[in-house]
Sequence to fold (602 residues):
Amino acid sequence: MEKLAPAIAPPPDIGTARTQNRAVLDWVQSVARLTQPENIFWCDGSQGENEFLLSEAERQGSVIKLNQERVPRSYLHRSNPNDVARVEQFTFICTPTKEEAGPTNNWSAPAEMYQKLHRLLAGAMRGRTMFVIPYMMGPPDSPLAKIGFEITDSIYVVLSMRIMSRMGEGAVKRLGESTSAEWNRGVHSLLDVNPERRFICHFPQDNAIISVGSGYGGNVLLSKKCLALRIGSYLARKQGWLAEHMLILGVESPEGKKHYVAAAFPSACGKTNFAMLIPPRHFAGWKVTTVGDDIAWMQIRDGRLWAVNPENGYFGVVPGTSYKSNPNAMRAISHDTIYTNVALTDDGDAWWEGKDGNPPPHAIDWRGDDWTPQSKDKAAHPNSRFATPQRNNPVLDSDFDNGAGVPISAIIFGGRRSDTMPLVFQAFDWEHGTYIGSTMASETTAAATGVVGQVRRDPMAMLPFCGYNIGDYFRHWLATGKRLSNPPLIFHVNWFRKGADGRFLWPGFGENMRVLKWIIDRAEGHGGGAETPIGFIPRPEDFDLDELGVSRDTMRELFAIKPEEWQRELEGHAKFFESLGGVVPDELHKQREKLADRLAQH
Fold:
């Protein structure tokens, strides 16, 4: 568990990434005056610094060194049991007016929230070290790359930020000394990890983030959902690009022809699995590579969308990850990984529910208590995580660090739906695709909400991450489409449709390659499809079923468009748009009317 530990003095050869930018130096000093740390530790991201901080964290009890033969250079961290996930109810967008934050965000006036946070931060680092982390999001030579400085009193944050971002001297050099240069100001303090004093606040107009009272990654690694998505989406609209909650993968045919696909899925929908997909035996010679598993920044060039992954690592959910579900992820996390809230076996290995092999006869659970297979509670927290460098990924794309980005041929939206949604269908055009994305939904899982099967709308998988008014976000998507002369095709997928017996109709995992192949065929202009009221779907002869072991009847069920289900779906779209209070663009309302008309004539 994160310890409120005494100050750490860096050795003389560490901390060489100190900036000379006067705006940054003045800001750091102002935060130091407010929080009153024992000392200031300027992080440089070096290997020596990392080894020093790991040894200090281990000495303090913030991390536990795992069995170095089983998981070399890997560690376990336990967060406070009251602090194990993102906290949407304590996450705020602080803009001058409530309308700018929109109906899907918690809002607070900036002046009031700054005042509240500054009261909480006053003296908060007394007796502790204030770490200053310079970091860069995006490849170093990307025009979209963003510089941030995160101040924190958590050694776990420093260790994780080194994995998740490009941390250190490169960020300092990219920013330079201009006091007018764009950079993000991020302040984090653990305080006393009290949920009543927990706030994750974003100030888009100031390019600033303040997070207090939490030690959990998604709340405190300010490079990730905070800068890359909430602040990033605001900057993207202002500057004319897209910041999206999307994986990016490459697909290469045996002939060497390559396409890139971006895909947005809500949680518990197999996002990381899809980003690291292994084609089945039938697809000999096909390769799938990972550019990113979570976030895509996309700009327009030559009439196309070009995407970069701003992150430098993966912060994934551990339970359910296995050599069956995601062999490449298992290989990636087999070394140089920080695990959070998994179980510790008696021989010093990490364990979680769904890992290959039998459960250990005894372990220490994520809370630090004894656990056996007979225990009523899970050994690993359902939201336990791994943080691992993307260079660990055995199928990392060769262009993962290319600042020019990769050209996107297709965008995929998807969710966990037991009925209604076919296995795959294609939008008629960009505007229709934007409508599909704006109404996408997923059935909740127990791990997420405690309520199973409730349909939750999550437009573009951005509901918790859009840093401004969702209606303006939809308008930005529509406006982006008008600027594209060669837009990517847009698709919707659903791996989770069930039959009358409650079983999944589609095997998923590597077999999703068959869906991906049809998407690529469509992008190349030679894939067949049948026009339906909801979009284009594969005809039987268009879809590769060799060696699949799924019957024709099952395939018909996977692609069935049932009027009564779609009537409920249309009502759900209308109810969701209505809940947004009049911010939805007219174009999307008209798309719903067109869909209703097509279904009525079907």
User: Anything to note?
Assistant: The chain has a mean pLDDT of 95.
